[in-house]
Amino acid sequence: MNIRTLFVGAIALAATAAYAQPVDRMVVEAGKIGAAIRPTMYGHFFEDINYGADGGLYAEMVKNRSFEFPQRLMGWDIFGNVTVEDDGPFDRNPHYVRLTPPAHPHMATGIENEGFFGMGVEQGKEYRFTVWARGAGQSIRVELIDNDAMEETQVLAAQDLTLDDAAWKRYELRLSPYRTDGKAHLRIFLTSGGTVDLEHVSLFPVDTWRGRENGLRKDLVQALADTKPGVFRFPGGCIVEGTNIETRYNWKNSVGPVENRPLNLNRWHYTFRHRFFPDYFQTYGMGFYELFLLAEEIGAEPLPILNCGLACQYQNDKPEAHVAVCDLDPYIQDAIDLVEFANGGTDTEWGALRAEMGHPEPFGLKFIGIGNEQWGPEYPERLERFVEALRKAHPEIGIIGSSGPNSEGPDFDYLWPEMRRLGVDLVDEHFYRPERWFLASGSRYDNYDRKGPKVFAGEYACHGAGKKWNHFHAALLEAAFLTGVERNADVVHMATYAPLLAHVEGWQWRPDLIWFDNLRSVRSCSWYVQYLYGNNKGTNVVPLTMEGRPVSGQEGQNGLFASAVWDEPAQSYIVKVVNTSDAPRTVEIAFEGLKRSVSLGAGTCITFHSDDPDADNTLDEPTKIVPVEGAVVPEGNTLRAEVGAQTFALYRIPAVRK
Ligand code: AHR
Predict the structure, then answer these.
(1) Centre of ligand 1 from the C-alpha of residue 3, in Å
(2) Span 38-82, pLDDT tens digits
(3) More confident residue, 7 or 526
(4) pLDDT band at 1; cut points 50, 70, 90
(5) Count: domains in the chain
(6) 641 alpha carbon to ligand 1 midpoint, in Å?
(7) Domain boundary residue among 172, 207, 242?
(8) pLDDT band at 5 (very low <50, low <70, confident <90, very high)
(9) Would you say residue 219 lies in a domain?
(10) For 491-627, where are the E strands, in sequence order?
């Protein structure tokens, strides 16, 4: 974490600053400990978009490792005598390459993989190469190379491997590059006179998250864990739906031995004509098992979203593209089986698979989402079948329905009542909206129906008008909006910013929470907002008002947004104030209704600000804009503070027994 600490002077700022401008007086009703903040708050939305999985979080460095891409050698350069065969040892990934000796001993036969925009390898680190191969007595050389090297040699690391079996067998060796390179390739070539077959050619850093072999990139998982996420939504997003039903995310294809998980298309390869990525596929190497495990290890509730029998309605909305209602049974069974995979005993079919994969204990699944961005009557009529069956088979599982792709409008107005009729537990709302929407939506949830389904703000981000990239101002407005989410904790139970990850050379969609290249990653300003909320979510809402009204950027509120919570374990109040105006504001926060036996102690103040509203952190300057921590001392029961223009300020004030 990169919060800067600034102690000197902060007390003076809070206690003795000359308050030139008029004071904005807020009241925290400190004795009214209100609705519980759900532990599921402030989570992550994960989808394989922007090379978020293959080429990103999933640490595999070889692209098209099983030679199953439709162009079988995509990602590979070949030289000499190489053929693709199709009777390999893995029935769902049958292709492999055959390396036959060249015509002349001075010639060479081999293959070279380009990775995902190259391969990031670091000096002093080890990389685990594995391959399924056959060819008794034959040998190959395995190298990490830098084709652009100006040095004497292209070779960054090399090992020889001798095969000792005529049958298929898994081999492993380690490569340790003598220098760092973000664009390395993997080269394999024959060094003996006979034929060698190669399948599932794989290269991972040894140093993955928790050292797992089929592992995840450590820096990226750490960035997820650091926000203390309450929920982890996966695997999307639109890839849940697929361009057609056949290419939907099929969780059953994503579990079991990694070598035999069949390849799927990734719709983000062709969704945007201005950003085509023809080499973007889903290997399912990081499948549902790995995603459940990840959720567990970052301390978040797992939240899988499943296909509801509809293909992506943006891409394919003819009735015949979808599963007829009368044919939904296998899809409903997939949902029921998923609960068994996650929670079932090891004596059940799917629970046994989970145990075989390494996790005999249940994953403790509590929620399932059915459908992503659907619309029209075709959605509720399908969802109804899922709800009936799931309620019967697993009444303990919360069901999440969708309100469509928009935060308001005809689809939204149609679907919300339908979700109430079907009695789902939560409704997934999506809003990628511009600044003016975020500024106007601080009160969005104040008047929501308290009796119906709760809200899952399942995909949201501020998309600057004419500025569709990450920048501080967008993050500031997300912070402002979230004060309204926090104030309405009784109705909003989950919220996940989207999308989560983006490769700087392979993105289709921005803004995104975390950016990376093959060696580095950077936490955006929006990430810091999630971090500040996730680490300061408290346990209960406490009413906070200005002249009797919630502070939600309303007329006469000087661009201020604010909310307050009580943190029971820390016995502290946490107040969040966002000043979206261009002028600093002097804020006086009176804590009314404190017990006589309690007083306010010295606390901390964290401020998040950038002088340049268009700036963000970058790979080269990852900590350009980070929160700054200082100290505050209330005067009696009142906290006075100056909140700078365009600043998110967060105060943690302990309640101290006298
Ligand atoms: O987050 C990117 C995409 O936005 C998601 O896949 C989809 O659900 C939404 O349209």
Answers:
(1) 30
(2) 999 999 999 999 999 999 999 999 999 999 999 999 999 999 999
(3) 526
(4) low
(5) 3
(6) 39
(7) 207
(8) low
(9) yes
(10) 492-497, 501-503, 514-516, 521-523, 540-542, 544-546, 549-550, 560-567, 572-579, 585-592, 598-600, 603-609
Full-prediction pTM beyond 0.90?
yes
Does 60 qualify as catalytic in the annotation?
no
Nearest-CA residue for ligand 1 atom 1 is 499
Looking at residue 151, its pLDDT comes to: 83
Would the pLDDT of 444 be above 90? yes
How far is the centre of ligand 1, averaged over its atoms, from the C-alpha of 374 (Å)?
Answer: 12
Taking alpha carbons only, the member of 538, 630, 486 closest to residue 14 is: 630
In this predicted structure, what is the pLDDT of residue 2? 60
Residue 414 shares a structural domain with residue 297: yes
Whole-number Å distance between alpha carbons of 588 and 593: 16
Q: One of 68, 143, 290, 373 is an active-site residue; which one?
A: 373
User: Which residue has its alpha carbon closest to ligand 1 atom 6?
Assistant: 237
Q: Are residues 167 and 50 in the same domain?
A: no
308 C-alpha to center of ligand 1: Å? 16
Among 495, 515, 534, identify where a domain stops.
Answer: 534
Residue nearest to atom 9 of ligand 1 (CA): 237
Query: Quick check: CB of 47 below 6 Å from ligand 1?
Result: yes
What is residue 10's predicted lDDT score, i.e. its pLDDT?
39
Beta carbons within 8 Å of 70's beta carbon, 6+ residues apart: none
Instruction: Give yes or no: residues 173 and 321 share one domain.
Output: no
Does residue 2 form part of some domain?
Answer: no
Q: Are 157 and 292 part of one and the same domain?
A: no
Atom of ligand 1 lying closest to residue 45 CA: 1
| Structural domain harbouring 374 | 42-59+210-534
Q: What is the DSSP string of 165-232?
A: -SS-EEEEEEE--SS-EEEEEEEEEE-SSS-EEEEEEEEEESS-GGG-TT-B-HHHHHHHHHT--SEE
Decide whether any atom of ligand 1 lies within 6 Å of the 499 Cβ: yes
Tell me, yes or no, whether 486 and 551 share the same domain. Answer: no
